[in-house]
Design goal:
heterodimer; A: about 900 residues; mainly beta; Phage tail protein beta-alpha-beta fold; Immunoglobulin-like; 22-stranded antiparallel beta barrel; 5-stranded mixed sheet; about 10% helix; about 55% strand; B: about 375 residues; 5-stranded antiparallel sheet; globular
């Protein structure tokens, strides 16, 4: 019994809005009160029983009691008497009755109050057992939510709260909170916040998530209330069987074309140089392709690499790569989760046509200081995290760097002059001021520098910061206010020939402010809305002489300025338990403003330097061009059975910032361009339809998605276009329209000893120039494959746990070779044979096939250990297939020879040591 | 030490990606269609002088034949009475014409199959003088540079062609000749001393568009390896300079990019390089080449091997030469010295009927050069 009381008190401690301490000894009372003052009521009761009341007269002076009771427990009488008032009561074991406003006082000390130091977890089994007991009692205990006085009232009430991890205190993201009958569910957001509107009454609330142990709560819902929960992580329990959790989000959510990856999945996919690489894992998902190895830019559903919005804690990352793309810019130890949206993109995102890759980092451990790190062949990394104020403020710092510079110096011969190095630094600060306000600060800095046997030194850098304030207005409404800053810059310099020593630089920066709100009006609607604005400042290119003897003429392309603003609203509406609709509208407005210069061209002729008629000068702050338009978002789901659903979506996206690159991959020499008089905003529409089926108690997911996209105002380039230091880029680009369509099939098993996925994609991506004359027309104005059109793609990603300490991961990938422009004929000109190329992208490089294998060996699982470590041994491209990155032809002397360049043409072994403390 | 070397090699292979080691030959699938597009090469000579245009046809990549010259075409300069004359197969010359600097001309070509081609208007440009050619030892070789300037700063775009000539000797001198089954004293100029002339076979461009003044200093022209037989006896180079229009420069630059500079990670996509000629009869038919017009400037220099380049590095190409004694038993002299025998006699071995001989390639330089001394040779 005592234990039970202590538990009640414990629950009270956590769930402060809990109404009543109810389990008192039933000493019955009788009486009839008609409009009786409270003091009279108390006198009557005290006279007839041995209860004593404690209350503040000020709380009750206006209260009149109307109640009638015959031999009922005091609690029952008080329930009736105090119904509809803010007053609460508590009765302790000595028959003392405490009347308070809003909240019943606790009559017991919290559990473990006196024996805090005695918490025995010296052995794993005891530790696990203690946890289990705590969890089980929480799972069977009935939580009363809201004021009991509302009992029996029909209708709905909203339950909200936060879910955290028991071990680290960090918010648990993407946790599903649901009841089965009727089927109503909610998912925690990136702050671990959920809000669910349920019919009043008793429910079993199921809480499920990947990587966390499923749990449940028994609730009795009287009215709106709050329920915070903690979830245990699925730590390696040595003698426990993990029961397959029912992961049914695939079928039940309206979201389609979205993939969510957690760190565990990211870390188990074999990678090229031993370091877990987020982008490489994203590339294994259906619908995501890259033009070749060693490139970080990726193409989603037939879109170009510049059409992906890559968000790092809500701030934009322009170059997500390190070391020519062999590493991704994200330190794997600090990533919490990654979400990739390919279709049905929620209305809160905008600004890019093809996809959103939303990377969020961990907040840092709020309970104790921990760290993690790794040492690989080329890189080392270290992450430290811990509380500044326990349970309130945490800090996380991550650093990653290479020692490749040092390695290059050790190499003989031509590499001695080469240099290649990078580092990145992350800092996250999280502060939970109180229940309603939390603050998040995240900063990221990366820098790359390389020089490969050439005389030019390349360097680029990302600088990103985001500050967020999350405010909970009520159970039904919360808002997040975010300020972001991103800067990307690169430079190329050379001083080999002093007379022509130069430095070429480019930078883009954006600062944005936005407010996002989530509103949960009732069971059937989840509304989000917001407003935001981003200012862009571009320095599209500057060439400067360096050193006193340089005769380079300085050349600076005028800066560009723009302001992109958007408002949006979206509503997830559960029409019936089977049918759910997600509608959204975003309206975006882009203003390009001065100072700036715009050239006018002779009408009817292709734009060229020779057809420039006039130059219009715009003063600082004056509007050069305004573009705006609506973006529609619609998604719906119809569940045919609990395990089978159909989803459809339509979305329109607008993009005002264009990536200018005539190389196939994202390279450090790409530039960005804002929409202006000639560069029209890109507009993309996507229709998609999908079928989802879960088998074997939701352990196996099957999905089939098809899509059709149209893309307007795409950019392609005239032959031999000059893109750098071009003061009138409009003369070198051609406008094109695109279509892309495809089908993605996937079978996935996320639990069990063997897990992973197999996907097949059929996809096409075609472009057609819309110009009328001469050089504005590519391939005679007909549709031609884009450079990233790879129709067939098969990927198998798997992980097999041999035992607790040893697991094997593998990755098999096949795809059609990407399109290429091939030589058709040869001729002699200027003393050498030359080749005449085909129309653009009419042929393909050889198909791509690769198999990787890696083995993860964990140290022993003793709980008390200085550090937990693991070794990752892997082989990339185990078959050694020389996959062509590109195919090219060179004239060597009098002959024309074809070559194919493969970047990882042999099996590459890797070894990484990881540790955690 | 050994272990480290292995480790390093492994690292090199595994990590360092861009250079050389992962490049394989690639033979594209048969591209069957017989593409025979017209190729136009040449220059209109501004001012007074002769102009030459060469016409040929494209071939399939797999074709082993020499490019086919386009014969029996007529080439006219629009708006004038000037007409080119076919002086050799596919080579058309306009002997004496005046095309004033600053004026614009169009060239019309009519081929034997009745098709007509027309160039865009070509502006005649004045080519500035070549100031000098300089050279210096760079690494294991000699780098030759061009220096030029245009005081009026009008030229901005330059293109060069060169022909270089070197003097060389075969390792053995054959003073005897096999005539009518008899070994006789050789007459005429010696055949062990020759001059070989080569034409530039890459596109050489320079631009001052990004410089404040129209001055090119030390623009790289060619690199002579220390092992080259060119820098052995004497060497001469003649450089021709052409002022280019911006479009012409862009064309050559583009051609250079798509045929000489592709293959790196960050290189641009190859593209169809369009010149300034169009087919009038079939606008869809591509025409390759670019016709520009300018005066020609040229400069010749002689270069001696600098002392800094060790002579021991020279590879003459005659390293495999040896002498032999002929005839052999059962093989008469004619087997060696007759047609197809492959030998030239160097001298008779005294007191015998045997000869010291060497292969023709080791005694006769005329297979790769000419034994006629060029008029400009000192």
């Amino acid at each position: 019994m005592t234990k039970f009381f202590r538990l009640v008190a414990f629950i009270n401690l956590i769930f402060s809005h809990l109404a009543v301490g109810q389990s008192t000894k039933p000493t019955t009372v009788s009486g009839q009160f008609v409009n009786a003052p409270f003091s009279q009521f108390v006198q009557t009761i005290e006279a007839r029983t041995n209860y004593h009341f404690y209350y503040s007269p000020a709380d009750v002076d206006s209260l009149r009691i109307n109640a009638e009771a015959t031999n009922v427990p005091l609690a029952t009488l008080l329930n009736t008497a105090l119904a509809g008032t803010p007053l609460r009561y508590a009765i302790d074991t000595q028959n003392r009755v405490f009347i308070t406003t809003d909240q019943a006082i606790r009559t017991e000390l919290p559990i473990g109050f006196f024996d805090r130091d005695g918490a025995a977890d010296t052995t794993t089994i005891d530790y696990g057992a203690a946890r289990t007991t705590a969890r089980l009692t929480l799972e069977t205990k009935l939580f009363e939510i809201g004021s009991r006085s509302l009992a029996g009232r029909p209708g709905n009430a909203t339950l909200a709260g936060r879910i955290k991890s028991t071990t680290t205190g960090e918010p648990a993201v993407g946790v599903t909170v649901l009841i089965e009958k009727p089927r109503i569910g909610a998912v925690t957001d990136q702050y671990g916040f959920y809000s669910i509107t349920l019919p009043r009454g008793r429910h079993e609330l199921k809480i499920r998530s990947l990587g966390l142990r499923d749990t449940k709560r028994q609730i009795l819902l009287f009215g709106d209330g709050k329920l915070d929960m903690e979830m245990d992580e699925e730590v390696v329990p040595l003698k426990e069987v993990i029961v397959g959790a029912q992961k049914d989000a695939n079928v039940s959510s309206t979201q389609m074309g979205a993939e969510r990856l957690d760190t565990k999945t990211i870390k188990q996919v074999p990678t090229v140089l031993g370091e877990a690489d987020l982008i490489r894992v994203v590339l294994t998902l259906p619908g995501v392709k890259s033009v070749g190895e060693g490139t970080v830019g990726f193409n989603v559903r037939g879109g170009s690499a510049g059409q992906n919005l890559i968000l790092f804690n809500d701030a934009v990352i322009y170059n997500p790569s390190h070391l020519f793309g062999f590493f991704s810019a994200f330190n794997p130890d600090i990533i919490k989760s990654v979400e990739l949206y390919k279709s049905g993109i929620p209305s809160r995102y905008g600004g890019r046509l093809s996809s959103v890759l939303d990377v969020s980092t961990r907040d840092g451990n709020k309970k104790k200081l921990t760290g993690a790190g790794g040492i690989g062949l080329l890189t080392g990394r270290l992450t430290l995290e811990g509380p500044l104020i326990t349970d309130k403020t945490s800090i996380l710092v991550g650093v990653r760097s290479t020692y490749s510079d040092w390695l290059l110096k050790q190499l003989p011969g031509s590499y001695a002059n080469s240099r290649a190095s990078f580092y990145d630094v992350n800092l996250n600060l999280t502060h939970e001021a109180n229940d309603r306000n939390s603050f998040y600060l995240s900063a990221y800095l990366s820098h790359d520098q390389f020089k490969l046997n050439s005389d030019s030194l390349y360097g680029y850098s990302n600088q990103v910061a985001a500050l967020k304030w999350k405010h909970v207005f009520s159970n039904k409404l919360y808002g997040v206010f975010t300020g972001t800053y991103s800067r990307y810059q690169y430079a190329v310099s050379s001083d080999k020939r002093p007379a022509e020593a130069f430095r070429f630089g480019f930078n883009i920066q954006q600062s944005g402010l936005k407010a996002d709100f989530n509103y949960f009006p009732n069971t059937r609607h989840t509304v989000d809305f917001g407003i935001g604005s981003t200012r862009y400042d571009l320095n599209p290119g500057s060439l400067q002489p360096t050193g006193s003897t340089s005769r380079i003429r300085s050349d600076v392309v005028p800066t560009e300025q723009g302001l992109e603003s958007a408002v949006y609203v979206g509503d997830k509406f559960d029409v019936s338990p089977r049918l759910s609709v997600n509608v959204g509208l975003r309206y975006s407005l882009f203003m390009n403003f001065g100072p700036g210069q715009v050239y006018t061209y002779t009408p009817g002729l292709p734009r060229a330097e020779s057809t420039i008629l006039d130059t219009l000068n715009y003063s600082s702050g004056s509007l050069v061009k305004t573009d705006h338009g609506p973006e529609y978002r619609l998604a719906l789901r119809y569940a045919i059975t609990d395990a089978f659903s159909v989803k459809a979506s339509y979305n329109r996206m607008r993009q005002y910032l264009h990536l200018i690159s005539n190389a196939v991959a994202v390279s450090p020499l790409d530039i960005y361009k804002l929409s202006d008089t000639y560069m029209r905003p890109q507009v993309g529409d996507q229709f998609s339809l999908g079928l989802y089926q879960n088998l074997r108690a939701n352990t196996i997911e099957l999905s089939a998605e098809g899509y059709y996209r149209t893309l307007q105002n795409q950019l392609d380039y005239r032959g031999g276009a000059t893109l750098l230091l071009n003061h009138h880029l409009e003369t070198d680009v051609v406008r094109a329209e695109g279509v892309a369509y495809g089908v993605e099939l996937m079978i996935r098993k996320m639990t069990g000893k063997l897990n992973g996925w197999l996907s097949y994609t059929y996809a096409r991506s075609l472009l057609r120039t819309t110009g009328e004359t001469g050089s504005d027309v590519v391939n005679g104005g007909n549709f031609y494959p884009s450079s990233y059109d790879k129709p067939h793609d098969v990927t198998l990603v798997g992980n097999y746990k041999i035992n607790r300490r040893l697991s094997i991961s593998f990755n098999v990938t096949y795809s059609t070779g990407r399109p290429i422009t091939l030589p058709l004929a040869k001729y002699t000109l200027a003393g050498a044979e030359r080749v005449y190329y085909s129309e653009r992208n009419q042929y393909r490089i050889p198909d791509y096939f690769r198999t990787d294998l890696s083995m993860n060996i964990e140290g022993n699982h003793k709980v008390r250990k200085l550090a937990h470590s693991s070794w990752t041994l892997g082989i990339y491209n185990i078959t050694g297939r020389r996959n062509a990155y590109s195919v090219y032809f060179n004239s060597v002397g009098q002959a024309i020879k074809g070559y194919q360049l493969s970047i990882f043409g042999q099996p590459i072994p890797t070894l990484t040591y990881n540790f955690k403390f | 030490m050994h272990k480290q070397a292995g480790w390093l090699r492994w690292l090199q292979g595994a990590l360092l990606l861009t250079v050389g080691s992962c490049v394989d030959p690639y033979r594209p699938p048969e591209i069957a269609a017989p593409n025979t597009f017209l190729v136009v090469e040449g220059n209109l000579n501004a001012g007074t002088g002769s102009s030459t245009i060469r016409l040929s046809r494209t071939q399939n990549l797999t074709s082993a034949n020499k490019p086919t010259p386009e014969q029996k075409a007529t080439i006219k300069v629009e708006g004038t009475t000037y007409s080119f004359v076919e002086t050799a197969k596919g080579t058309y010359t306009l002997a004496a014409a005046t095309l004033p600097v600053g004026s614009k001309f169009q060239v019309r070509i009519k081929t034997g199959d009745g098709k007509e081609y027309l160039s865009d208007p070509i502006t005649m440009k004045q080519t500035p003088k070549l100031d000098s050619l300089t050279w210096e030892v760079v690494g294991n070789g000699l780098q030759v540079y061009v220096n030029t300037h245009d005081a009026a700063a009008k030229t901005r775009y330059y293109r060069w062609e060169y022909e270089d000539t070197y003097e060389f000797y075969t390792p053995f001198e054959s003073q005897l000749e096999f005539v009518n089954g008899q070994v006789v004293q050789r007459t005429g100029p010696p055949i062990n001393h020759c001059w070989r002339t080569e034409l530039s076979n890459n596109i050489l461009l320079g631009s001052t568009a990004r410089l404040t003044d129209d001055v090119l200093q030390k623009a790289p022209l060619l690199f002579l390896s220390a092992s080259s037989p060119k820098l052995n006896v004497n060497y001469s180079i003649l450089v021709r300079q052409y002022a280019q229009s911006a479009e012409g420069y862009a064309y050559w630059q583009n051609l250079l990019k798509t045929t000489e500079q592709l293959g790196g990670l960050f290189d641009p996509l190859p593209s169809q390089v369009g010149g300034n000629l169009h087919c009038v009869t079939n606008p869809a038919e591509p025409v390759l080449g670019f016709l520009d017009g300018c005066t020609t400037e040229q400069l010749r220099v002689f270069i001696k091997r600098p002392a800094a380049l060790s002579r021991s590095l020279i590879r003459t190409g005659y390293e495999g030469c040896f002498t032999d004694t002929i005839p052999k038993p059962k093989q008469p002299l004619s087997v060696f010295l007759g047609p197809g025998g492959g030998y030239n006699a160097i001298s008779q071995i005294e007191g015998t009927s045997n000869y010291v001989a060497a292969g023709i390639a080791c005694t006769d330089c005329r297979n790769i050069g000419t034994n006629v001394k060029p008029s400009y040779w000192p």
